[in-house]
């Protein structure tokens, strides 16, 4: 099965963390569906919410922060205001200082996935902006391991 088909067949149960988001009128574009740029905004928000709530990240005070080095999204269907979106999060890979997230967007009450995105972050030292030779903070790593899903191949 191709990666696209695998992603399109995702269900909420494929993701250990879900965050609800109420769409706003301003999220829509002139075609009356959520603008593509909003998806990245939401993906970044669910990741940072998880990092703050479950990984001990304190954005203004942490010695390290996650810098996005890669992102992409596959769109399957649209969402528009006034829908309630459900952002589902999992980790597909954890490296020494990097993490690969997979984020799915569902519409509340609808089973099929609307989009699936990928963000890769590298945790860097606040002072240097470079990856720490010792890797990511152990508390962050432990929190990320809780939503890590081992896959046979990276998608």
From TrEMBL:
UniProt keyword Nucleotidyltransferase, yes or no: no
Species of origin: Podospora didyma
UniProt similarity note: Belongs to the 4-hydroxybenzoyl-CoA thioesterase family.
Presence of keyword Hydrolase: yes
GO MF annotations in UniProt: fatty acyl-CoA hydrolase activity
Gene3D superfamilies: Hotdog Thioesterase
Pfam families from the UniProt entry: 4HBT_2
UniProt protein name: HotDog domain-containing protein
Domain of life per record: Eukaryota
Alphabetized UniProt keyword annotations: Hydrolase
């Amino acid at each position: 099965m191709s990666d696209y088909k695998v992603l399109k067949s995702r269900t909420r149960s494929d993701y250990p963390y879900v965050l609800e988001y109420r769409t706003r009128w301003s999220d829509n574009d002139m075609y009356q569906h959520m603008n593509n740029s909003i998806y990245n905004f939401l993906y970044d928000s669910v990741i940072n919410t998880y990092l703050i709530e479950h990984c001990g990240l304190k954005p203004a005070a942490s010695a390290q922060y996650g810098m996005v080095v890669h992102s992409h999204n596959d769109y399957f269907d649209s969402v528009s205001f006034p829908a309630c979106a459900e952002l589902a999060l999992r980790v597909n890979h954890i490296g020494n200082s990097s993490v690969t997230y997979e984020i799915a967007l569902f519409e509340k009450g609808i089973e099929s996935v609307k989009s699936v995105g990928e963000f890769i972050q590298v945790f860097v030292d606040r002072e240097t902006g470079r990856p720490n030779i010792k890797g990511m903070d152990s508390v962050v790593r432990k929190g990320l391991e809780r939503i890590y899903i081992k896959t046979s191949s990276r998608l």
